[in-house]
Design a protein that fits this description.
Layout (H helix, E strand, L loop, with lengths): L2 H7 L9 E5 L4 H12 L3 E6 L2 H11 L3 E4 L5 H9 L5 E6 L14 H25 E12 L10 H21 L3 E7 L5 H7 L3 H11 L8 H13 L7 E4 L10
Parallel strand pairs: 1-2, 1-4, 2-3, 4-5, 5-6, 6-7
Helix pairs in contact: 2-9, 4-5, 5-6
Length: about 250
Amino acid sequence: MTASSLSATERQPELVGQTVVVIGGSSGIGLETARRARSEGANVVLAGRDPARLQRAGNEVDALSTAAFDATNADDLERFFQDLPHPIDHVMVTAGGPYYAALADMDFAKVRAELDVHLLLPLQVARQCTTRVRPGGTLVFMTGNGARRPGVGLEIAAVLAAGLPALTANLALELAPVRVNLIAAGFVDTPLSASLLGDDLEQRRSQLRAELPIRRVVEPADVAALAVHLMTNTALTGATYDIDGGEQLVSGA
């Protein structure tokens, strides 16, 4: 057996004894990140809105605990953090989905809800993390990158995709030595994507398999692997990491 193969077989889990909190952890990318963190030895805490789905997810990953609540409610969010075991090591926020609407059809109540989930919630979580995440721990946010190309109906998604990198960089300075990073994903084959695309889902999958440089669709496990890397690589903070299989490089995708 070579030295390289020996080191590979003896690799130790990287999150042993640490606690990972996933807000939006009942399905999709959040649940897959919790699963990956558990495989690296972490204790995981899952939060989400749907109690039944959250309980199933918690049982699946043997979660330390679960909490069903609306994370955009500041009082509920504060109580959630107060009830966590201390200290915690990593927090990931995956709550919410994109909102697409042409200006004429825009529902401004939904726009405000989007800003609550994707802008105010990260700020509220960051404030909780100042006293509850150990030095050197991490805060990981999620956004999209598809709206970087202008298009009808992409205004809100584009504003958030442009604004969250700046928010991340500033929070990385203010929360230091807690590290703050942002994952910007293209299409990921999740239940949320399925609900958004409906009958067009398989057509979109086929298109991406044909056109992406990686010749496959990005899966939640791909994003989870990146998220856990951001937790374990202590040199990374204040940056935005694209994960889209090369989608931005292909004009038709």
